[in-house]
Amino acid sequence: MRKRIIPILLVAAVAASAVLATRGAAQAPSPMGDANAEPAPFNPQLSALMSMLIQPRHAKLGLAGKEENWPLAGYALKELKQGFLVSARAVPRWKGLPVPDLFDAAVSQPMALLDFAVKAAEPRQFAEAYARLTAGCNACHATTDHPFVVIKAPDNPSAYPNQDFAPKR
Q: Which helix (DSSP H) or strand (DSSP E) does residue 94 occupy?
């Protein structure tokens, strides 16, 4: 009888230690935090908004205009304007400067010219207005002590390999 009890006790001890180990592991905090917790509010910095909302839309606008895809360029321009509005609402002041005023000074006139060029389907006017918009972006970066952030017209659509910028024919 003793020979049977020892293996049974060993199996029971191993099972008990496994149960205790899994209980301890379940109670250990996850390095990723509580999966059931409410997410923290998203309070992005202006630089994050520029990278997420403005820069990709600026690039897509340039690529659509280069391909003379005016419906897509109009959509990209609308999205870019919306990105500036969202950014200005999310970060109303940056280092004491009113962000809406910074955006307005840098991009309002080029945006109006782009809107006209897109609606008129004028590639030359689009290219000129887009160059002015890009220069406005860089002037704003220089004004806000970020002259090393240099924006340029995209020269290749490979940044968006999953989007076709050519107009449908």
A: strand 93-94
Distances (CA, A) of 62 to 14, 30, 96, 99: 66, 44, 31, 24
Residues in the chain: 169
Burial grade of 161 (CB within 10 A; 0-12, 13-18, 19 or more): exposed
Longest alpha-carbon distance in the chain? 98
Contact 118, 77 (CB under 8 A): yes
Contact by Cβ (8 Å): 59, 48: no
Indicate the pLDDT class of residue 64, thresholds 50, 70 and 90. Answer: very high
Q: What is the pLDDT at residue 21?
A: 59
Q: Compute the distance between CA of residue 24 and CA of residue 104 in angstroms, rounded to an integer.
A: 57
C-alpha–C-alpha distance, residues 48 and 115, integer Å:
26
Instruction: Give Cα 138 distance to the centre of its chain.
Output: 19
